[in-house]
Amino acid sequence: MINQLFDLSRLDIGAKAYTEETLDLSAVLHDFTEENRNSFKEKGLVLSAETAGSVLIRGSHLLLNRILMNLASNSAKYKTAQEGHLLLRLEKRDKEAVLTVTDDGPGVPEASLRHLFEAFYRTDKARSRTEDGSGLGMTIVKKAIRLMNGTVTARNITPHGLCIEIKIPFAEGQ
Fold this sequence. Notes:
Blueprint: H1 2-13, E1 21-24, H2 25-42, E2 45-50, E3 56-59, H3 61-78, E4 84-93, E5 96-103, H4 110-113, H5 137-147, E6 151-156, E7 162-169
Parallel strand pairs: 2-4
Antiparallel strand pairs: 1-3, 4-5, 5-7, 6-7
Helix pairs in contact: 1-5, 2-3, 3-5
């Protein structure tokens, strides 16, 4: 929890705390998936990525990895089947990269969706055990995306699961 509070404080400081560079988001997603495939498989979560060629953005490699780790960790933690699946899908739309991170877990109660990115918010009391996390992961995701001039939203999918949609503007020249 101390580390996540430290991260949150750094995000509040803003861009000065992180190095911004031009990144190929497709490569970041593939690298994350390959580097973490086995560790999440041990937790019962299968990671996969679908990308649309090279997608250049301005951002922080460190922040992107932290975002992906938070989302994958949540998916593994809250899955209800013995084996869950998490798909990272990247598309180009207009002048932005659109990353959808979709799992096949239970989703989130509709009333909780609007609170999902609030610090210390838990969707139910059963998930308030501190050993399961700090309640800061989704807040860190939102602040990190905003630092890269992007937006993040959450929605449930049918028949069940959660989709996190992240939009980040292309780097100039994309």
